[in-house]
Design goal:
Layout lengths: L1 H10 L3 E3 H6 L5 H8 L3 E5 L2 E4 L6 H8 L4 E2 L1 H7 L10 E6 L10 E6 L1 H4 L3 E5 L5 E5 L1 H10 L5 H14 L3 H11 L2 H10 L4
Parallel strand pairs: 5-6
Antiparallel strand pairs: 1-3, 2-3, 4-5, 7-8
Helix pairs in contact: 7-8, 7-9, 9-10
Length: 193
Amino acid sequence: MKDKILKICKENNGYITGKMARDKGIPSTYLSRMAKDESLKRVAPGIYLNEEVIEDEFYIYYLSYPNIIFYRETALYLNGLSNNMLSDYYAILPYECNVPKNTNLKIKRTRKDTIDVGVTIIDTPYGNKCKCYDKERCICDLFIYDDFEYEEKAYAINTYKEKYLNKEKLYSYAKKLGVYKEVFNVFEVIAWN
């Protein structure tokens, strides 16, 4: 059984969950036993990691709460639009989902009609996949939330303009999210630098 579990770990970048085990016909008690003998490391309830792999907090949160979408500073970081280190992880959920209790995961609930605008699957720094807002949604969020620091905002906008600019997609999102005028002014009128 141990070899079967380690094979599942290998297929999932070193991770296995109780659900993955049950889907393969393995009772989750085997995962607990392997954690006790230190063949696996328990990193969150129902989530285990092969000891040879570095913990990926983005992926662990995503496995723990599959409905979350990383946004704000976390999405900027994952999209290469921030040069700041993360101290907190920001995620968004639809209103009907329960909010997880976690000190490092800051959760916001939002309306159903805009939550899917810009959702993408992105690689974490360790090569795992998680849901996150794309670059254009990140730029729009800079105008939706007025508490970003000037330097953070300037870095994100300038990096986006230099490396990733897609005005059609950006303006489409800005219209849906109600920040078209602000985004247009920065990208066309002011010519932000």
